[in-house]
Structure formats: structure tokens, C-alpha cells
Amino acid sequence: MTTESGADSEAKQPQEKKETGKGKAKAAAQPTSPQNHPEQLPAAAGHSTPARKEQQKEEDQESHRSSTSRLSKSPLRGVKKVKIMQCKVTLLDGSDFTVSVEKRAKGHVLFDKVCDHLNLLEKDYFGITHRDVENQKNWLDPTKEMKKQIRAGPWNFAFSVKFYPPDPSQLTEDITRYYLCLQLRDDIVSGRLPCSFATHTLLGSYTVQSELGDYDPEEMGSDYISELRLAPNQTKELEEKVMELHKTYKGMTPAVAEMHFLENAKKLSMYGVDLHHAKLVGNLYESLAPAEGEDSEAVEIMLGVCASGLLIYRDRLRINRFAWPKILKISYKRNNFYIKIRPGEFEQFESTIGFKLPNHRAAKRLWKVCVEHHTFFRLVSPEAPPKKFLSLGSKFRYSGRTQAQTRRASAQIGRPAPLFERSSSKRYNMSRSLDGAPIMENHETPAKDGSMDGAARVIAKEDIITTITTERKAEEEKAEQEDFLRDTTEPAPTTPLRYDTKRSPHLYTCDPLRSERSLPSSPVSSNKVRRRRRESQRASSVSPAKSGAGRCRRQARAEHKAALLKEQALLLSARRQRLEQGKRHGGTLFSFSLHLPDLSSILDEDGYLTFPDLSEMRFLPECAQSFLPIKSPSLIPCFLFIFFFLLSTSFSVPYALTLSFPLALCLCYLEPKAASLTASIAQSYHEHDSSEEEETDSEHTDFAFDGEMTATESEADEDSEMRTQYSFIRRVKGENVFIRHSNLMLEDTEPPPEVVKHQTNVSELKRSFLETGGGSSGGVPGLTEWEKRLSSSPLRSPRGDEAPMIEPLEPQDTKDEQPTGDEKKEEVGPKGITASADQEETAVLGTETETVPAKQMSPDSVEAAAKDMPVVHTETKTITYEAAEVDTNGDADPGVLLSAQTITSETTSTTTTTHITKMVKGGISETRIEKRIVITGDADIDHDEALAQAIKEAKEQHPDMSVTKVVVHKETEITPEEGED
Amino acid sequence: MANMCPYGRFTHAVVRGIPETFGKVAGDGGENEATAAVELAKAQRQFGCLTGALRQKVGLQLIEIPPDPELPESWRIEDVAVIQGDTALITRPFKQQRRSEAEAVRRVMSELSLTVVEMGGEQGDSGGATLEGSDVLFTGREFFVGVSSHTNRRGAEVLADTFRDFAVSTVPVCGGARLKNVCSMGGPGTIIVSNSDGAKKTLRMMEQLTDHHYDVLTVPEESAANCIYVKGPSKRDFLLHRPAEECPESVSAFQKLQDYTLLPTACSEASKLGASLSSLCLLINRKHTHF
């Protein structure tokens, strides 16, 4: 990719890739091939920015190539002249590999080149490091431009193992193990991996065997070993012992020797532990055993990040250990690093432990490493970037594959074991041991892979409903190639759609999407926005009823796409950020502010993520910057909304301007306080609805995640997450069980979901239902609030007869673009206010906002408002805010519906509806799978069990997705006569 | 790595006889009145039973260092060395007077061609470090060092420096006890622990610190928590534990261990001095099986 225009160079790439992808489709796919799904991909990639079609194309293609996503280039980019940089990458064998990349290339470009050079397929364990000015090693973020990560100095890098596989024998290829060995040898020689004399001897002897082959007294003489570095301080004694052992290995192939090497090395206590210097802040447990008179604050410790968790060392002693499941949250602030610990058996409260790192960058570095390790080793699939906004958290997430995914992917490797030369050995010019080795490798590996591959394929076949992430996709690509032809209809339509969006000439029509997306992040707005989104989704998710098989297939396909979309989420969001940045400079305040919300996610120039800070609001006067509300990311949205609202009512710009800013400030000032409340209310009030929302909240997801790994500065937010864990259990009762799997593609902006409040919500909900019941008896008999809500959902269980779930009663749908969307039917609900009537809606809602702040204004409940009124609680106020903001958003952004499906299955007492919705909004694709299980029947059903079962099934079906929310409703509550719990 | 194999494979045991000064605490100016309570003859008899069990029942090669009346506590041989694989760390006991006990042990270690590592003198890096073997629990996979009245963190550091392959974790030991007083190995992945509060606390810490999983066998009496587990040459599991007379309530717990050969071994006299079964011997494995 050294050509001038990025477009050209990449255009080539994809072609090759496509070919390889296809070529290899039948021979079990290579790890790269999972990403080769040219046919499908288009559907997955959502891009809203017009001016960038070409680049997107290339990127789409490119995104097939590597799972470590790639980001889009900024729109401005094509214009500029491409600078080529020479990169020097020090490989694991100590040699340097020089390669040129575009200056603006993302980290993954270099990484992929190096991996290609090394012929390495299982590359997810590896990474590229760069030493910063402080000579600290930083991992090159594959999703970010290299130039931003390398501030100064030459472009020198090192290729290293990033995630040490706890069980190297599970690596598929010998070549991967070889590189791991090289890394470990370096770790050992450099002293990073301490081991005893005996271990040095043993490991050294395997090294010698793999490098030099069998001991040959004639050729080797007596001091052949001193040429090799085997230990930090290599003694004659050590060499002699190594030689002794070496002599006993006759006939051992290099691959076997390396396997032995790894089997021993992996047991070392410091294997794969990434150490960071720190000091204690506050006191750790008594195990610290401070020496007498020692100030615990000043205690120098080391934090070790490894596959299993976080280790704390003092000198060489392990003084504490926090396994990933024990850690609820990781955060950093300035140069402090915090972990929040799950309360132990006998403890009531979680505790937070702080460490002081030498500087801010070190804290950030540690935090990132933790996030990445947690994701890689602990999660099944990478976490979506946080959609929250309020917490001011970094959006950094590990973007590559997790260990689980990479294992699955590498099980697909079908190439014959590559021949490679063990660097210093020249073994292949040598003699007998070689003859055996490669042959054996050749035979062994394919055989193994073949079977595994077969198995995997079977799974793919049988388990169509499973969510598929890229690798899985690869399998399916093969397995379902025939199906593909049939199904192309589906992905195909989406393609034009996407291009449409991109092509759309006016940038800002699309951009509003973005602002919609970001606005919700403001806590106040969340409710409405969610609702709005839900509606549009609901509407769009209406899919014609299909035959079971077709549905399944379609669903599988959809999930395919979901996975892909997910893959791209990061890159897309990053692209978005870039766009923002670009615009920031050229735009007017107006256009800038439209994108403002993304400021919160802007990356440091050095490739790090930072909290949004004042410096990013450069347009504000100095003095104003210290004023808290100004820092609020939602200020601009608020301001804008109010501004437009006032403008629309008064038609006086000065008036609107003068009033709206203070108002917005007020809002933002209240925002943090209202945030949690609002969120919770929103949730409870629309619990049912919100189950469709697209957040993937790690905080909510205790099934899949241990906790949350965010950098955040908001305390309130932290608290809420904690309680989540517990609240879940209690919610487990009810008659209707809704399970939603969602993959959040959107780097979204929702306020931190406050699960905590959920409890409250539930009771709140109950109360409101009860009251509503009373009220509604006077109103529309029989149609309770609850039912109404239900009715607005695609699946209406109570009446959800056979054909039921497909029709949302009040789809607010949306978007002119949508009609083009697939074969999905868009219905404009009879009662719904069409979203396209944005202006009107704004006005209406706006009015309500102003005059009736205490009312609940959600668009979907407008028709229900009459009934709702009596029930209105104080909280509704907040909702009103949201309603208002939503509108702005709504105006701004229709999302493009890529596809939506509804699949229904029923048994005697349960009805299961699965919704898969893919949307593109503002260049971000988002996929949600919502599963609703309605259990109808008498009270003797064991609801807990039903729920547990449902969750289990869901998890099995979608191993790559996470259950982010479980909402349980008990319908009996609605009806006044059954008012008991 | 080289030395990592399941706990319990031993080939040799090193013991040191009970001197007639048994009961006199080294360096003690006679203020210790507990001395009157111990019966030398009984202690020697019990010692004989222990060594007999190790040699004849378990099948270990026994090396007995003759007692030295000058060293009244030298029978607590576990304290003076920590042995793992082919490395023996000669410790520095808390009491100055006990440090000369190491002399004879060091010789034996050398004879067994172990790599002897010294903790070093009072000067140097490890100055102030104290370590006693009865505060060290080696599980086969890692070390736990009880930071107690006799062992400090510096001592643990030296241990960590010596056995670099293994994680060395420090755990608190409460109430003046020693780590091995409250827990011991009862199998390759089994820790026997008493259910006193202090022991539970220690165990919790160990559970938090470890990367591995251990089964825990809880015994109601504290003195029962110290056992000697050996997987003998015959590949059978042997457990030397305190007999029913000394720990009536715990015997049933030991019976839960499947397919074990239980060897009740009395240790009442030594335990009056705060020692226990494991204090009386050093276990060594001279048959290394590399991975």
C-alpha cells in the first residue's frame, strides 16, 4: 500500500483478498478468510458520509482482511498527498524488517504487513510496540493512525507477543509457537521472565535442540552453546548442563522441542505477566505486611497484568491478586489507577483500591493493557465501545479478537504447515532432524485441522441461529455457499442503500444522524431518544412473516451481519471521530456543535484516549471553561435544541440565542444530578421498550462480563454499576421474559444505564401500572398502559396469537432512506407520529417541554398520554427533557435500516420472538437482537427457571454476543384486579 | 518447569534426633516454665515412631542427624531449610541461637548434592531477613510464606529470589502461630486447614492469591491441621496425622481422603513446644523428572 492514493492501493488489496478468500473457501479458511466476505460486507458497513465512497469501498474491503479493524480515513484525506514512511520493525528473532507505509496508515496496516512477512496467521496474540519519548513501550493501536501514536522520533517498532496464551499447546500452528518461543527466550534472557537455574538449563536445552537440531559431537564441538544466549547471566556450568540435556534429545524435532519449551515456560509464575511500576494509594490488605514504621502510601509495588487478572507484587513477592471476575471496574484518573473489587463473601461493600503510577501516561497505559487483557482472555467477544457519554469515559476498547474467537478462527487454518527457518539455526540446510520435522508437521497439522474444521462446519450448519462473528462467518461462508446464492437477495439490497447514504450530497443531512446518536448520551435525553429509536426500530423490524426455514436462514444471515457490523463498530466510530475532528476546524460553530458529542471520544493525538477535557472546547472563553456545566458534553446538544426550539417559537434569533444558552447551561448543570434518576426512570418507565435499546452495557451484563472496564471519572456512575449485579437476580421473577442480546455498534452515547435503579424502577413500574390500571378503567377500558406498551412492541404477548409479533402498532417510521431498505416492510403506524415529520414533532414536543414539563411526552406515548397523565410521577419531568432532545435528534437523524427480521416460534406456553435489526446511523452500524419470550400460563410456572433457561439458550445461541439486558415483566400487575405482587 | 511436579513426591527425609535438652528453649534464660511439662522420653519415643513410619511405612530414605545437646531446638529441622527440587535454601531462623543448627543440615544437603543457597549474613541485601521453614507452605505449584512472628517479608523475598520459578505469596498468620500450624498439604492439590478464625483468614488470603485451585480439607482442631503427606515410591498416598487421642474430632475428616494410607503419628510432646509433625523432618525429592 505504498501507492499514492489510498484508494488505489487498497482497491488492489481487496481484490487479492477476495480471490484468496474465495480460493480458499473450500480448503478450510485461513484466519484471514473469515473476514473475506465481500458479498456480505457491504451490508454490514454503514457509512453515512457522502464524500467518501471510494474510501469506504476500500475500507469495506479492507475490513475483510483483518479482524483488527481498520478505520476509515477522514474525508479530507483523499485530497492530500500521501506521505510514505519507512518503518523499522524489530522482529522477535532480533532482525529488522523495514517496510514503508503511508504516514496516515492505521496501526493495523503495519501489523498486517509484518504478519504477512512472518507468515503468521494466528496473529491475535501479537502486537507491535513503539517506544515513546520516555522509552516506555506502548502498544500500537491497530485502529488508529500510526502518525498519531508516534509523536516524535523515528518510526521504529518491535513486534512482540501481546497476549501470552496460557496454554500454548492450543495454538494451531507451529510457526506461531515458534514466535512465542522467540519472545519467551527474549523475556528470559532479558530477565523479564525470571527462572531458576534448573529451568534455565531445561529451557535452554530445548532452545538448543530446536535451533541446532540433534547434538552432533563432530560438528558441534564442546562450546557450541556459548554462541547462544540462554540466560541473563550464562555460566559455563549452565552451558554444560544444557549440553548434557541436549544430548538426550536425539531425534526431537524443532516443533516438539518448542512445545516442550513452552510447556515448561508457561508454568513459570511470571509467564505473560506485564509489570508496571506503581505505588500504593491508601492501604491494601494487611497482607502487604509493611515493615515496621513503613508508610504504606509510599510502598513501591509492581502491578502485573496477566491472563487471569491483576497481580500485585512487592519486590518479588506477590502480595495480592485480583482475578478478572473479582474486578468490577478499572479506571484511571490522572496518574492514579483504580480497581474496584467485588465484595467478598463476608464483605458488604465493594472496595476500591488505588495505585499511583509514575505519570498520567503510565496510568493510561496500564489501564489500556488491563482492558485489553480482560477482553482478550475473559470475554467471549470484544465489548462494544461504551455508548455512554456522561461518564466522560474513554471509549477505548480492545478491538481485536478475543482468545475465544481467535481459537475458533485458528481452528480453521487449513494451510499445510508452513516451512520456516528457525532463525539462527539454518536447520533447513542441515540434516536429518529436519527431514523428519517438516514432513511430520505437514501431515499432522492438516489432519488435525481437517477434523476440527469439519466439526466447526457442522456446528455452523446446525446452529444457524448462532450469532456469528467473523471467524464463524468464514465457516459459514463455506458451508453455506449454496445458500449464499439464494440469500444474496438479502445483502444485496442493502448495498445500494448504503451507497445511497454515502452518496447523498449534503453532508449535513447525514450528520444529524450523528447528532442524534450522540444526543441521547445526555442523560436527560436518553429516555426519549431511546424510545424514538426503539420505535423506528420496531417499525423497521417488521418483517414479513416467513417460513420457518427461511427465517432461520435469514436470521443466521442477519447475525452474520451483526457480527460483521460489530467488527466494524470501532472503526466506524473512529472514523466518525475523525470526521468530527476534521470538521471542527473548518466548520462554523453550528456545524461543529452538531458533532460535538463526539468530543468526548476524541483521541489524544498520541493515540491514547483521553477524557474529554476543557482543552477540547477551545472555542469557549477561558473563564467559561472552568464552569462545570460547560464541560458537559451535552451542553451543545441542549443548547442547540433549546435554540432551535426557541427559534421556532419566537422566530427571533437574538432572543433564541440569548435565552437558549443559559437554559442549556442550567440543563447541563442539572444533568449529572438528574442523570441517574433519569436513566432509571426512563428504564423503568419503558422497561419494556427499552429492552430494545441498543446499549450493550457491560455494566448490565453480568453474565458475560466481570465488570466494567472503563475509564471514568464519574463516581455516581461507578456506584450504579455495582448494584447491577445484585439487582439482576431479583428481577428474575415474572411471567413474561424478555431477553435481548444486543450488539451495540453505535459508539453510543447513552447515559450510563443505571441498573441500580432498576429495582426502584420495577417497583415504580408496578406502581404506575397499578395506578394506570385504575386510571385506564376510566379511560379506555381494557387497554392498560401496559398493554399499550405491549402493543407498541412488535410482539404482543397477550394477544400475541399466532401471527402476532410482526406488526408494531405504532411504528414511527422513519426515514425516506428506509424504503430502499431490504425487503423489510416499513409501516407507518396508524397511531404513530411519523418520524419524518420531525419538524412538527419538535414543535409539539417542544411545546410540551416547556409548558408541561411534568408530563410524559415520549412520542410513542403521545396517544397514550391521556391515560398516562394521571400516572405521571415526578420523574416524568426528566422524560420531558429527553423528549425534547430526542426530537432534535430525530430530526437530525433517521437511521438507515439495513435489515430487520422477526422470527417467531411457539410452544404451548411460550412464545419466542427474535428480532434482529440492523441500522446504520450516521455511519455507524448497529445490530441488535432482541429475543422476547412470553410465557403465558399459570402462576405455577417456575419463572426463575424459565428465565435461567432462556438466558442459557440465548447465550448458547449467540455465543459471541452478550446478554445485555434482561427485562422481566409480570403482566398480572397491570390489571387492577390482580394488584398483588 | 524443571521442578514442577505434583506435590508429594519425596525420596528422602532428613530428621534430627531429640536431645536431652529437649524442652529447653534455645537462648532462653530459664523463664520458660513450659519446659517442665514435656517428657523427654515420650518425645523421643514419638520421634522414633515418626521416623519409623517415614522409613518403613512410607518407604523414604531416612537421614538422621544426631542430636546436639547444645542445640535444644535443633529437632525442629524444618525451620532451618526450605527445599524445593534440587535447591535447598538454608534459612535464617528468628532466634539468633538457632542459626548454628543449620551447620549440620547444610552438610547433609551437600551430600545429597542439592544446590545449597544461603540466606546470607546479617549484612548485605538480606540483612534483617528472617525465615523459618515452618512458615513456608509449598504446594507444588507455588509458595506461601506466612508473615509471622518468626518470618518477615525480607525473608520471604529471599525465598522468592531463590525459587524463581514459582510465585511466592505472603499471607498473614495470626495469633503468634506459624503458617504450618494452621495448614499443611494433604495431597497434590489439597490443603488441610484448621477452622479457627485465624486459619480461615489465612486461607482466604491464600485463595485470593493463588492462580490454582486447591481442595480444602477443614479439620476442627488446630493441631490436626499439620500433617505430612507423601506420595511414596509405591505411588500410594500416605498421610501422617495426629492420632485420635490428640485430635479426636478430626480423625473422621481424614477418612474422607480417598485411598489414603493414614498413619496416625503422635506428636504431643513436640506440640507442647509449638511444633508439629512436619516440624520434625525435611522432605527431599532426589528423583527429578523433567517435564
Automatic annotation (TrEMBL), chain A:
Biased amino acid composition, Basic and acidic residues: 9-22, 51-65, 468-489, 812-829
Subcellular localization: Cytoplasm, Cytoskeleton
Gene3D superfamilies: 1.20.80.10, Phosphatidylinositol 3-kinase Catalytic Subunit, Chain A, domain 1, Pleckstrin-homology domain (PH domain)/Phosphotyrosine-binding domain (PTB)
Residues in FERM domain copies: 85-381
Biased composition (Gly residues): 772-781
Biased composition (Low complexity): 66-75, 518-527
Molecular function in Gene Ontology: actin binding; structural molecule activity
GO biological process terms, semicolon-separated: actomyosin structure organization; cortical actin cytoskeleton organization
Leader peptide range in chain numbering: none
Record's keyword terms, sorted: Actin-binding, Cytoplasm, Cytoskeleton, Phosphoprotein
Pfam families for the chain: 4_1_CTD, FA, FERM_C, FERM_M, FERM_N, SAB
Tree of life domain: Eukaryota
PANTHER family: 4.1 G PROTEIN, BAND 4.1-LIKE PROTEIN 3
The protein, known as: Band 4.1-like protein 3 isoform X3
Region (Disordered): 1-75, 468-553, 769-858
Gene Ontology cellular component list: cytoskeleton; plasma membrane
Organism: Austrofundulus limnaeus (Annual killifish)
Presence of the UniProt keyword 4Fe-4S in the record: no
Phosphoprotein among keywords: yes
From TrEMBL, chain B:
Organism: Austrofundulus limnaeus
Keyword field contains Transmembrane: no
GO-annotated molecular function: hydrolase activity
Gene: ddah2
Keywords on record: Hydrolase
Family: Belongs to the DDAH family.
InterPro entries membership: DDAH-like
Name the UniProt record assigns to this protein: N(G),N(G)-dimethylarginine dimethylaminohydrolase 2 isoform X2
Superkingdom of origin organism: Eukaryota
